Amino acid sequence: MFPENRMRRLRMRPKTRQMVSETVLTQNDLIYPFFVNEGIRKRKPIPSMPGVEALPLSEVAKEAKRAEALGIPAVLLFGIPAMKDEEGGSAWDENGIVQKAVMEIKRVSDVAVVTDLCLCEYTSHGHCGALRKGKIENDETLRLYAKVAQSQAGAGADIIAPSGMMDGQVAAIRAALDEKGFEDVAIMAYSAKFASAFYGPFRDAAESAPKFGDRKSHQMDPANVREALREMELDLNEGADIIMVKPALAYLDVISAARREFRVPIAAYNVSGEYSMLKAAAQRGWIDGERMIMETLLSIKRAGADMIITYHALEAAEMLRGGSK
């Protein structure tokens, strides 16, 4: 009891605070996502995501090497094709934008390359799969996802990250990869991807907003935690190597529940809306941006994530290397 017990004793000095710190954030925890746009020749700022730019193919290898030099172990690629069609055929084209980007990175860098697998960036309607009478046909979409996975793995992707939230997508992708001899290519499943308002800036950047309707038939209800755990369990049973919660900050409880339930690697996606709100407030001087970045990422790690996909990755890695505030 007080005054014998004084909790402040170990908070009084920086070194003792360091000694008793329970959660440690390092560059190894970060995955750097970026957008590769087939239709541009130079870097293109994304107005709704301050500090983030869409990259032409010519800049991809340089950006990956920049991340690698900062100690970031992996990058996540999103492709924006020059041409879109009803089916999203450029997603599995051997000469598609993501496939070319993977090959460019592998030519100069050892960074792990994760490729997002969905059709929303590639379809003219902006939905995540094959449409029939305005409805996504789940099983037909799985056949398309299988083709995309084989194409991305053939280009050299280390990890395939299916984000469409179709039932059975992990099993279909695992079977397709194994069929072509890609047994060593891992799957990072977007297992608990919620139908969130936090994706708005991303849809600007990826040019992937649906032309009609929404994605609530396949992305999860933000109210549900038990359903999220069931989705994760199903993905693991289908062969997922890593499971993901997306978004991160509004779903820290889901990350924590997943950490208690499963002994597997867990990723969390610190999504575009979370990034942009912080950046906008920092630009206006309302918050200390650097401290807020580190506190945000630390909270995701503390909740139980083993890896954090974040647009703050480069800036955070710089701060971690030099010592954060």
Strand order of the largest sheet: 1-4-5-8-9-10-11-12
Helix content: 25-40%
Please identify, by name, the CATH architecture. Answer: Alpha-Beta Barrel
Distance between the termini: 33 Å
Total number of domains: 1
CATH superfamily: Aldolase class I
What can you see in these coordinates?
With about 325 residues, the chain is an alpha/beta fold. The chain has a single domain, classed as TIM Barrel, CATH 3.20.20.70. Helices cover about 40% and strands about 15% of the residues. It contains eleven helices and twelve strands. It has helices spanning about 15-20, 55-70, 95-110, 140-155, 170-180, 200-205, 225-240, 250-260, 270-285, 290-305, 315-320; strands spanning about 30-35, 45, 55, 75-80, 110-115, 130, 135, 160, 185-195, 240-245, 265-270, 305-310. Strands 1-4-5-8-9-10-11-12 form an eight-stranded parallel barrel, surrounded by nine helices. Helix 8 (about 250-260) packs parallel to helix 10 (about 290-305). The radius of gyration is 20 Å and the shape is globular. The mean pLDDT is about 90.
